[in-house]
TrEMBL record:
It comes from Nitrospirillum amazonense. The keyword Lyase applies. Belongs to the LeuD family. LeuD type 1 subfamily. It is an enzyme of class 4 (lyase). GO terms for cellular component: 3-isopropylmalate dehydratase complex. This is 3-isopropylmalate dehydratase small subunit. Keywords: Amino-acid biosynthesis, Branched-chain amino acid biosynthesis, Leucine biosynthesis, Lyase.
Length: 204
């Protein structure tokens, strides 16, 4: 998993409440178990017309936001079914941070496991950030996970909190597998001891 330390990028405003995982990545894209290639389907029902052409009114299709790496969204982001493809699609598109008043629990947890930083802030703070994000190409935010701050284009600094263990994992690029591999020496020692003391467990 890529480390998340400091992210500076364009923030796209998405003032829609209850964006569910089917809106993030529709069910027809769930046939794959690969984490790559899903960015093309991100928000497809909002991004594309029935003929596959871009919907000019959708924020990520506007030139200033096509390379956005931060989303400022409405309340209850990521609700609906518990598909891990949702953070996969966001990450594959290039979104590394989502700011919203609240998140669905499973989606929130899945973000941390996939290198995305979800930041929950009070509604009035999100509203201010939404206004800043509406500045188009000038809507460049800096998200500093070490300092736990968001710096807006006008220089405002907004603080946020992340649970220490999750912060540690993001800063060091540790997913569940990475955390396990940190204990590889202890695992190897246990297996060696077990092979000697209980060889029948290793019989093939």
């Amino acid at each position: 998993m890529d480390k998340f330390t400091i992210l500076t990028g364009v923030a796209a405003p998405l003032p829609i409440q209850n964006i569910d995982t089917d809106m993030i990545i529709p069910a027809r894209y769930l046939k794959t178990i690969k984490r790559t290639g899903l960015g093309s389907g991100l928000f497809s029902s909002l991004r594309f017309n029935e003929d596959g052409s871009d919907r000019a009114d959708f924020i990520l299709n506007q030139p200033a936001y096509r390379k956005a790496s931060i989303l400022v969204a409405g309340d209850n982001f990521g609700c609906g079914s518990s598909r891990e493809h949702a953070p996969w699609a966001l990450l594959d598109y290039g979104i590394r941070c989502v700011i919203a008043p609240s998140f669905a629990d499973i989606f929130f947890n899945n973000c941390f496991k996939n290198g995305i930083l979800p930041i929950a802030l009070p509604q009035e703070v999100v509203d201010r950030l939404m206004d800043e994000a509406a500045k188009g190409a000038n809507a460049t935010f800096t998200v500093d996970l070490e300092k736990q701050t968001i710096t807006t284009p006008d220089g405002e600094s907004v603080g946020f909190d992340v649970e220490p263990f999750r912060r540690h994992c993001l800063l060091n690029g540790l997913d569940d597998i990475g955390l396990t591999l940190q204990q590889v020496s202890a695992i190897d020692a246990f297996e060696a001891q077990q092979q000697t003391g209980q060889p029948w467990r290793w019989a093939r």
